[in-house]
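Worked example

This section walks through a single chain of length 489. The input is the sequence exactly as stored; nothing has been trimmed or padded.
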Amino acid sequence: MARDPTVLISGAGPVGLTLANELVRHGIPVRIVDKAAHRTDKSKALVMWSRTLELFDDAGYAGAFMAAGLQAHGAQISTGRQLVARVSLDLIDSRFDYALMIPQSETERVLEERLVAAGVTVERTVELSHFTDHGDSVEAFLTRAGGESETLRAGWLVGCDGAHSAVRHGLGFAFEGSTLQSHWALADGRVVGLDPHDHLHIFWHRDGILAFFPIVGDRWRVIADLGPATAGEVHPDPTLAEINELMAHRGSPGIVMTDPVWLAAFRINERKVKDYARGRVFLAGDAAHIHSPAGGQGMNTGMQDAFNLAWKLALVIEGSASPALLDSYSRERSAVGDIVLKNAGRLTELATLRNPLLQDIRNTVLRFAAGFPQIQHKVADQLGEMDIGYPDSPLTAGNGHGVDGPKAGERWPNRLPEGAGGRRFTALGPAGIVTALAARFPRLVVAMPSCDPDHADAVRLIRPDGYLGFVGGPHDAAGAAAYLAALKA
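Given that input, the structure is written out below as tokens.
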């Protein structure tokens, strides 16, 4: 029985590939398997939001995505005849103040090529059939397309294997939620008649929503709701003629699609597990949560699951932190999943109102609210996932009374120093204190002494994923040391 990998990852979509890259960057050996013969050739998850880009930037490889994507700087909502609202994504509080429109096929290509360059190959047509958690390791049973089988012992197993996750089924976790009783159409092709090209265009027509998302060149993603559905009912994939008919009816004049590369009908599921982990087995991405595509949060939330789990696994595996650190993963990410599920559901309900009176009220209220810069700013930050934090995490400590700036549990707004991003905590504050912390906890902390009064007025411990774990006063060396001591193996 092989004992090769420290971490076995089931599923090589964006989430599994992100997790594999992050673990390899930490020096943790992985094996990653996927039952599909090839990575996707479809656009699927289409947007990478600001917070996700920041995490990749801290890790050192955001640039490859930027080269393959298109920056979208705003969104506009209209009825087809009258503008309802515009949202400027330039208001996002990030060094990436836009949405990066990038097909999932390109996202997977970038991640897989980076993984191959690091010496790890995705093992395709390999399926995880079942597993057993023995407490000190996980025994996994793999089956190849040709019928060959393999049994191996891994230190840890992570299910990034999508909505029909074999890992989730193996854990016996309930995937609680429902399927929305409506049909939807998707089309991906060349579109003319939309301007500006760097905006999302959303039409709230009386008969249903029609939404356009730029990809590259003159290629766009089109999504439209097709009305009520009954349980179990399957809608045929739309034709190009039907898509153009929908656009002519619900959109502004002159919008036409040609050369479609993908036409599909789909249903929206809203489901989530309560717990993301048991023992040495974890869930991430669609294996743990699926929801409406409204807001484009799905892939981003899954990738952020991967970033959250990777640094914790790495510190535990290398012996720098206690295994108890891993208990925070489910608690933190399940809370975020609840918020994303709720927000996406609300956006979908708002966009699919059928009652004409309620539609008019919605449009009037939104038109009024969009006139306030503070509301525009809040909406932009929520879309960019800049408001995600961990206020109730067991890893959040320190009150920081009288300290300006982000509080414990909130995102640190600046790029992490070289060598700290995703690897160690960053101790920021008075030179004597942070240097002493790094000397006492060399496997947990990188010191960043500061003479800047904005940073020297407090002792801050910034987590490897860019969130503040501890915030104390400028002399609170003891509090910071106690925080780190509690993490230490």
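What to look for: The chain has three domains: 7-46+103-177+270-345, 181-267, 389-489.
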